[in-house]
Amino acid sequence: MKQRIRSVLLAMVFSASTGLPVALAQTSEPASGTQAEETDASQPSAEQAEQTIRRLQTIKSVLENRRQQVRDLLEQLADADELSKPKIREQITELQQRIRELTDSFERTASNGVNLGNLDDSQDEKFDWHQELALIARPVIDGLKSATEKPRRIAELQTSINLYQQQVEATRKALEALSRLEQQEIPAEVADSIAEVENAWRQRNAEIEQSLVAAQDELKFLEAAESRMLETVGSAVYEFILGRGLTLVLALVAGIVLWYLMRALRRLVRSRRQSVPDREQAARIRLLAYGYHLLTIVLVAFAVLSVFYLRGDVLLLSLAIIALVMLALGVWRFLPGYVREARLLLNAGAAREGERVIYNGLPFRIASLNLYSELRNPELEGTVRLPLATLSELISRYPGDEDWFPCSVGDYLLLPDGSLAQVLQQSVERVQLKVVGSIVQYASADFLQLNMRNLTREGFGIIANFGIDYQHQSIALDQVPERLKSGLIDAFREAELEDDLKNLVVDFSAAATNSLDYLIYATMDGRCASSYFAIQRMIQQTCVEICNRENWTIPFAQVTIHQGE
User: Both 264 and 291 in a single domain?
Assistant: First the structure.
């Protein structure tokens, strides 16, 4: 039961110490007595005074009751035995603590919540960075608490009222039970103890009812003040515009003006520089440019903090400092990555400007190093832009004389399935081919994995086999190869492919089962790659034409049957 009485008293103290509703907006100037008086003046003075007097009467009644209880206990302590004294002293200590709390509550209620304890200028000699950080964050926390104080207080009062009502019902049942006992015939010594218990319960019931009335009065006052708060919205917005809103605008203007001034200075210096720097000088200039960007950011942040400081807005200054501290911690966490990226900007990292690098299975040349570096392939359309964090994971090397891609637009390719394809388009994403009159597309990385031949870039050779009958065996090694070769050269000349013919070989290959075979090998320039299959047909046609002209028999597959006797 003592715990219940203590919770009742603490709730009364908290409810009595609650002042007027919190303003919707705060100005940049610190709270003072003048502002408190202006806030009080904005409320209905008659109703406010009536509520304050009612709370003071309730607290004073409970305070006098506690003092009388202390006096009674002191008288009992003088006549009590050694066994009862510790319990009486404990009760006196608890009552004295409650008297101090009620006295403080009475004073704060009478002074409308003004507390000099918050204005104490005492300082600890020992420096504690935890405490200093808490002091910086204190305005932010106070602002959040102030913004939610009234809803929290209304919820607490509703909970306390429900608890008081339950306690009143419990004390009523206890008093009814004690009244029924008094109607019975009981010994005198027991009756005296029951009377003491009944007196204690009646005191508790009176205290709880007083606390219930005080909580209900305060709840009504807060709900009435909540309904009147809309009337102060206009004045609160006006105060915000002239106070914190003006501070934010000034800080924003200062930051923007300083930012554009620094950009104008950078453009002026860039316009004065006429010479084109080499790669090493470009790396130093790039580093100076990023250092200048960092200096600009620092100066803009300093300008914003200076505006907050000069305007005396502690809340905005604290929020800005907390944001900068969090930003600094984030930068420190990612510092190794920043160092690696800085080495790339200096062209001293694993990937360097102008060198060859493999990205997504394709070779690229690092065209420029920047926050977003550019990768280009001379044979492919399009550009790949990579952030420094991704580029720092790659390793480049000197390009040398290597090809950047196995083909170019317009080249003719011999695909693994033996079909002839022409390159129509190739980019960093896809390669488009024309195969037998149809369009075929490949992903660029997959295209590199094909086992193809570039007839245009590398040139090509055509192999053909041709055979004549065994009846021409006498001239097979001299006359036949010479006439075949001369006839083929004439055919290439007539087809206007003489300049593209690099070499022509006609030689006896083998004495096959039914024919004497010859190997014909023509080495062609890549310019005539589109005639790859036409040249093969032309070689066979020319050989048949020579045989017709020379009356050479072309054999066919034969089966010889020997009949035994």
Answer: yes
